[in-house]
Amino acid sequence: MKIPFTKMHGLGNSYIYVDGFQTQINESDLPLLAQSVSNVNTGIGSDGLILMLPSDVADVRMRIFNKDGSEAMNCGNGIRCVAKLAYDLGYVTKEQFEIEAKSGVVTAEVEVEEGVVNNVTVDMGKPELKRGNIPMVTLTGDDEDHVISDPFLVGEEDLYATAVSMGNPHVVFYVDDISEAPIDSVGPAVTTDHRFPEGVNVEFVEVLNEREINFRVWERGSGITQACGTGACAAVVSSVLNEHSRRNEEVIVHLDGGDLSITWQDDGHVLMKGPAVTVAEGEFFLD
């Protein structure tokens, strides 16, 4: 089976995008397809697969599959790329429109220069802070509690966790030096920790000042990636909660793949601004 695809990335967080308006794929084939296209040796190489589809409640819909074949709730870098792809292919003609993800509907606004979309701003909605809705469980905690700099033991690592959901679960740890963040050891241990029954994305943050942070991530289902848009949003929300940053002020998040601009507004909504880039187009052959 030949599957036309577009490879895109947001700050190095790359996915294979399939235009579901034109190409239909059996539901049972999607996990295998995600694993196949993601494989850097025998496939194309990516952090996963994203389908752009018609929607009954928004202008377009996206489905996100991690490189292990599991389906994700949300992807901030993926939303920006879907916004660019939908505009570039003419499925939307307005510069502000809605995109449906499994976690809900968000509003995207594309910046068009000489007919080309370079940057996209997305209203990611309001973060969820209640422990039970992230979800995160403890033996003693109340589901209504917020998890802000709570002691969190991982092996011999004494850490402090702040938990945030941006439609998908995140836990943020602060470090003095991002280059020494224990991402390879703590990341895989925490993402499958029993305290997170649905798994979790694990972020490490070094605070540079109120308007600037360094960031690295271990993504649930994908491992280390160059960037995570929802994770960057969660990191800024966490930084406000921990009084490292301020509400309604833009924070520049330095990720391995580049920078995102994040603002947690006074109305509770989180705005994310960053690039979306088309890398290549082609056909993938699925056995």
UniProtKB/TrEMBL annotation:
User: EC number(s)?
Assistant: 5.1.1.7
**Any one annotated GO CC term:** cytosol
- Which protein, by its recorded name, is this? Diaminopimelate epimerase
- Name a GO molecular-function annotation: diaminopimelate epimerase activity
Q: PROSITE patterns this protein is in?
A: DAP_EPIMERASE
List the active-site residues.
C75, C228
Q: Which SUPFAM superfamilies match?
A: Diaminopimelate epimerase-like
Q: Which residues does the annotation say bind substrate? A: N13, N66, G76, N77, N168, N201, E219, R220, G229, T230
Q: How does it assemble?
A: Homodimer.
Instruction: Using the UniProt record, name the top-level EC class of this enzyme in a single word.
Output: isomerase
Tell me the route in metabolism or biology where this protein functions.
Answer: Amino-acid biosynthesis; L-lysine biosynthesis via DAP pathway; DL-2,6-diaminopimelate from LL-2,6-diaminopimelate: step 1/1
Q: Which reaction equations make up its catalytic activity?
A: (2S,6S)-2,6-diaminopimelate = meso-2,6-diaminopimelate
Q: Which UniProt keywords apply?
A: Amino-acid biosynthesis, Cytoplasm, Isomerase, Lysine biosynthesis
The Gene Ontology biological process terms listed for this entry are: lysine biosynthetic process via diaminopimelate
Q: Where in the cell is it found?
A: Cytoplasm
Site annotation (Could be important to modulate the pK values of the two catalytic cysteine residues): which residues?
H170, E219
Q: What does this protein do?
A: Catalyzes the stereoinversion of LL-2,6-diaminopimelate (L,L-DAP) to meso-diaminopimelate (meso-DAP), a precursor of L-lysine and an essential component of the bacterial peptidoglycan.
| Signal peptide residues on this chain, from the entry's feature table | none
Q: Which family does it belong to?
A: Belongs to the diaminopimelate epimerase family.
